[in-house]
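re: ur msg from earlier - yeah i can do the adenosine monophosphate complex, just paste it... oh wait u already did. ok heres what im feeding in:
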Amino acid sequence: MKVLVVGGGGREHALCWKISQSPRVSKIYCAPGNAGLSGVAECVGIESSDIDGLVTFAYSRGIDLTVVGPEDPLARGLVDALEAHGLRVFGPRAGAAAIEGSKVFSKDIMAKYGIPTARYRAFEDPREAGEYIRVLSSPCVVKADGLAAGKGVIVAGTTEEALEAIRQIMGDRAFGSAGDRVVVEELLTGEEVSILAFTDGITVVPMMPAQDHKQVYDGDRGPNTGGMGAYAPAPVCTRELYNYALEKILRPTVAALASEGRPYSGVLYAGLMVTAEGPKVLEYNARFGDPEAQPVLMMLKTDLVDIMDAVIDRRLSNINIEWEEGASVCVVMASGGYPGPYARGLEITGLDRVPEGVTVFHAGTAQRDGKIVTDGGRVLGVTARGDDIPSAIRLAYRGVEAISFEGAHCRRDIGRKAVAHNP
Ligand code: AMP
Ligand code: GLY
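and the outut:
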């Protein structure tokens, strides 16, 4: 069968890598893809936001399965458009993807259906938001309602920072119409965990729990990024927490969306904070996380295409999803300056010198004059599997040591929290 993967980051490279292992697949296209895909997938010069272009391509090439990586095309209705042409696609329709695309919608669903999350209020008027923040007079989190490429969440330590966030989002319109509304919510403290699940709208099967590293610097300091590394399994997710997340969060969310007339299908990602009062939802994503997809897919034993088919045909309960033993760690190598401005076009060397057992998923790379060059903030996801977290960490960092480009930086403490749980 012929598969089209939409997107061009580390997540999509990992998806292509995993899908290519399916004996059922004869050809993979990736739109737009990146420089790491040669040998796995053919890159197609269509942006992931170009809904008409993607539908025309999938239809004219007789694509048997389209897999949507990023949130933007989901929110723009790519799944709906492909289905309208009778094409098979893995991912939620726009109405269901609103669980990620609108923070106000997602918080309202959680409130209505009793799903544990931070206390919040939503605002359309910046003055009212400001008044609320002054009354709160405690640290809080300000979130632009719509999609903002992971930058629309401001964790404000002081009232002044929160008011500044309102000014930027609603006054300066830093995220455009994504900031027409904001959510102001209680600041939660604890350890974060990412629980991704496959669901066909009826059955919910969580994947191996993972942990992201959002902040740019070691020790979770500095500004938030798209994610500087991830590992799986995450020991913070005990059996008890896993069961709680399934029973009290994931299943109720899928059921809630069905009752709202927005049946959900695809990957539902719950970002949780494990607080002293128990786990609470920070946010939902309507897709695989990036970088979480890289270690999680490396641990997946079952044929991903079989799982995706079962999701599309609403027979997920019939399939047995198996995971590898051990653990996987992904260390992101980023461009100098990221998450701020950075240069592009810098040559990357050493990709052919990584040790055996390391897979380098490309994120922001391009090919120029036969060379692989940087072409984004997060450049590579250096990913390794080991018998346990410490051995996967060692192997991943040996991979990092082999690779260089000017200004490259990465966190040195990916996975350290897991080691702290199991010293
Ligand atoms: P994003 O994944 O880009 O939407 O960013 C969300 C991140 O912001 C989470 O992973 C947390 O690190 C942080 N965050 C969001 N909501 C809260 C909250 N209520 N309390 C503390 N941190 C939060
Ligand atoms: N790594 C977090 C995300 O994909 O949103």
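cool cool. The longest strand covers residues 266-275. ping me if u need the other ligands too
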